[in-house]
Write a structure and sequence with these properties.
Layout lengths: L15 H31 L14 H8 L2 H5 L6 E4 L4 H6 L5 H12 L5 E4 L2 H5 L6 H13 L4 E4 L10 H16 L3 E2 L3 E4 L2 H7 L14 H19 L4 E4 L1 H6 L1 E3 L2 E4 L2 E3 L1 E5 L6 H12 L3 E5 L9 H14 L5 E4 L5 H6 L6 E3 L6 E8 L2 E8 L5 E7 L6 E3 L6 E3 L3 E3 L2 E8 L4 E7 L2
Parallel strand pairs: 1-2, 2-3, 5-6, 5-10, 10-11, 11-12
Antiparallel strand pairs: 4-14, 7-8, 8-9, 13-16, 14-15, 15-21, 16-20, 17-18, 17-21, 19-20
Helix pairs in contact: 1-9, 7-8, 12-13
Length: 432
């Protein structure tokens, strides 16, 4: 009966408060998944249709809890997980400290085995703010979403936004990216844990408007750091997938990697994950004992989903804090250095550029890298790829394919890349 426990949802009533909130929001998440998203998916499958769409307010962990309970599990119930992208300012998107939503939805697609993930894309934000939106910004917005793992776009751009041959060029650009980046397997060494339970444990519902920040320092830190860690990794060319507790439980430990859905993660980042189900944490301990790495921002977990689990969680943390495969950091800025202690980069630059992102997929005997510049100015860098072979440049806008100059350094290839504002190119290494 929830009534005797109801005050715990709004007031800290002592030790039992966190457990009441964890149980309540877990129930909310399960009910929303089954009775909304699940009901739609079941109907669609019974009628030969793929379910898709997007949720409300996807950019913050706070909103995931308030509106969905657990957005990760909800998106698993879409056959084509989707998002809503209302802005066409790729530079601002690349610098935003909130969750990079295309990365979130593509991670769910990767972990659930969905071949496609979708974005409803428009320049709505620019229109209502009466701000200009150039053709290159629209191209750059597509690039930013595809470099974060999307595979198709539902365009909400108005036809009168395009001039001359721009619409044809735009559609061909999207089509080429879709052909090259759909199928095969995403390659990333890092996984970022989705700390939704940690937020549940400190979330206090209020009568404030939805855009007000959550109450309490701890709630705000969990919410803000989750987006900030994501940006910090991407801005330092450290690609990743988000994983949740179900992903960890479905994984196997293989050669110091957390292997799941064809991907192999050698380092798991726990951003303020102070709450964790005991069976999930036991799997992570097995991963660390096998040679995998854990980077914990803010500290290791100290609370389970119940009082009985909490003692197990604290015993595991006591053991892990002594491991040389575990690093605990207190600042977002220190996460990348900690990750680098355990995992060499797949892509690195000769000089920093926080707006240059990459995606690596393996398909049909090829290593396909998509490198995109989200900056509103040109970027020139020497880029080192953890791959060897004679690379070719495939240009998604023009359709040009050509060999490019490169040199090898051991098992890596170095290429000079010159990208115009908002430009993206595919670098393709063939093994034959």
């Amino acid at each position: 009966d929830i009534l005797p426990e109801l005050p715990h949802l709004f007031v800290d009533c002592g030790e039992g408060t966190a457990y009441t909130r964890l149980h309540f929001w877990k129930a909310v998440a399960e009910l929303i998944e089954e009775n909304f998203y699940g009901q739609i998916q079941d109907w669609c499958r019974a009628n030969g249709i793929a379910s898709s769409g997007h949720a409300l307010c996807e950019e913050h962990l706070f909103w995931h809890a308030a509106f969905e309970g657990d957005l990760y599990r909800d998106l698993r119930r879409m056959d084509v997980p989707g998002i809503d992208m209302l802005s066409s300012n790729p530079t601002a998107l690349a610098r935003a400290n909130h969750i990079p939503v295309p990365k979130f939805v593509s991670s769910v697609a990767h972990m659930s085995g969905s071949r496609l993930c979708m974005s409803e894309t428009s320049s709505f934000s620019q229109h209502i703010s009466k701000l200009p939106c150039s053709f290159q910004q629209r191209i750059g917005t597509i690039n930013w979403q595809y470099v974060l793992g999307l595979t198709c776009v539902t365009s909400y751009y108005r036809l009168d936004e395009f001039k001359g041959d721009e619409l044809k060029t735009f559609n061909e650009h999207i089509g080429r990216l879709g052909v090259m980046l759909t199928g095969g397997k995403h390659v990333a060494d890092i996984a970022v844990f989705y700390p939704i339970q940690s937020f549940w444990g400190v979330y206090t519902p209020t009568s404030d408007i939805a855009y007000s920040p959550p109450h309490g320092d701890q709630a705000q830190r969990i919410n803000n750091d989750f987006g900030a860690v994501s940006l910090e990794l991407l801005a330092n060319q450290r690609d990743f997938d988000y994983i949740d507790d179900q992903t960890i439980l479905e994984s196997r430990i293989d050669n110091a990697s957390l292997s799941v859905a064809g991907e192999n993660f050698r380092c798991v980042v726990l951003p303020n994950a102070w709450v964790m189900p005991a069976e999930v944490y036991r799997k992570l301990e097995e991963f660390a004992n096998s040679g995998g790495a854990i980077v914990a921002l803010g500290g290791l977990p100290d609370t389970g989903m119940s009082r009985d689990e909490t003692s197990q969680i604290r015993a595991i943390s006591d053991r892990l804090c002594k491991s040389n495969r575990v690093a605990v950091v207190q600042k977002v800025a220190d996460v990348v250095d900690a990750v680098s202690r355990f995992v060499d980069p797949d892509v690195s630059l000769d000089a920093p550029c926080r707006e240059l992102f990459y995606l690596h997929r393996k398909r049909d005997g090829k290593d396909i890298y998509f490198v995109c510049n989200s900056l509103d100015a040109s970027v020139q860098r020497e880029v080192t790829f953890r791959c060897i072979g004679k690379p070719r440049l495939w240009h998604p806008t023009t359709g040009e394919i050509r060999y490019i100059d490169s040199h090898t350094e051991g098992d890596r290839t170095v290429i000079k890349v010159d990208l115009k504002a908002h430009e993206g190119v595919l670098i393709v290494f063939a093994s034959f």
